[in-house]
Amino acid sequence: MTVSRSTCVVCLLCLMQFLSGQEKKPTGVNNSCREFVGKFYSWYLTNASKDQGRAGDIVLNRRPYLLSPVIIRALREDDKAQDKAGSDLVSLDADPFAGGDGLAEAYNVGKVTVRDGRCWAEVHAVWMGKEDQMPDIIPELVIKNGNWLFVNFSFPNQGWNLLGALKALREGEKQGRSSTKKGTP
């Protein structure tokens, strides 16, 4: 069986195009995720510093479409619990999107990892003109209906993540109510 030279060239060109397309797609997704996260933190820094409400409320009020329904529900439950408790602190004692250190002067997006339809972007805070070497925030995102959506925020230097912290607060609140009913401190 003989294969013509032109058939080999056509097959080789098709293979090269397929492989080059495979390489470009993750790069496009990485850049898209990086840009989305960078724009979010630029907007958040500008607007949250002017907002007089509870940390993070500006996103819930102005751009909830950027957050997963799970984050929205958890943050609203947290707000309700704090409103109910009055001056006693029962809610998240940190900015849900910037962490326990509060707002930095700037945020830079570093390494972006895309795997299994999820994106993790390493965000570095800038303090006094110097960027932190380690990431301060690692938001996790998914694409839904063609748009990026935040599904969690991790704070590796502080050892917590948003959804985990909010869940622990609500569970602690439930345990506190049940122990009060039983008469234990």
Structural overview:
- This protein is an alpha+beta fold.
- The protein has a single domain, classed as Nuclear Transport Factor 2, Chain: A.
- Strands 1, 2, 3, 4, 5 and 6 form a 6-stranded antiparallel sheet that branches.
- It is globular.
- What is the helix tally? 4
How big is the Rg? 23 Å
Mean pLDDT: 82
| Domain module tally | 1
Please tell me what the overall shape is.
globular
- What order do the SSEs take from the amino end to the carboxyl end, as H and E? HHHEEEEEEH
Catalogue the unreliable spans. Answer: 8-16, 18-26, 177-185
Q: How much strand? A: 15-25%
Topology, element by element:
Layout: H1 5-48, H2 57-62, H3 69-85, E1 106-115, E2 118-127, E3 130-131, E4 138-144, E5 147-155, E6 160-161, H4 162-182
Antiparallel strand pairs: 1-2, 2-3, 2-4, 4-5, 5-6
Helix pairs in contact: 3-4
